[in-house]
């Protein structure tokens, strides 16, 4: 099956298959999938997975299709966008916040602020690693808005590092992706990072 890691959304969610897989998993962990408390669980998990991985079937370019000409050619930054994603190694949650900023291109075209949060959500709702999530958000903005610069910073706690394995609850992973002016100019980058870290 083809999945949409960069652009086009091509795959579909197969609910009966997901339900059968969850039932198998329950048996594999030594549970009785037919006991009262578990009998609806495969269907529930399938519905939850459909929601958690909805971003596989959505096209990021559509999210940024609406743009406005406001003639603004300086930083636009949306800070502290809550995000919940799923670690592709263990299929457990990693969650935290995303900060997304860009400097519009020469045309001064901007997108709706909510679209930046929608873009974060779309890519978060795929099996992910934090680095790819960060990069994909930045690259989608570059692709659709042709901005002077983009900066994406993501800070997350990974439950695979907290509830199992190395067991370090509270450890925060920070990733960033900078493009254009934020890459070439330490001053622009410093300004954005300063605004991102304000209020902390
Ligand atoms: N770089 C990166 N690593 C991640 C992310 N999410 C989880 N991981 C790591 O993926 C790695 C998978 O390592 P493996 O050795 O294959 O799996 P494991 O035996 O379950 O590893 P432990 O978590 O160390 O017990 C672990 O080190 C995780 O911490 C992420 O978003 N980015
Ligand atoms: Zn993990």
From TrEMBL:
The gene is folE. Belongs to the GTP cyclohydrolase I family. Zn(2+) binds at residues 87, 90, 160. Its EC number is 3.5.4.16. It catalyses: GTP + H2O = 7,8-dihydroneopterin 3'-triphosphate + formate + H(+). Residues 19-196 form the GTP cyclohydrolase I domain. It comes from the Bacteria. This is GTP cyclohydrolase 1. It holds the Pfam family GTP_cyclohydroI. Homopolymer.
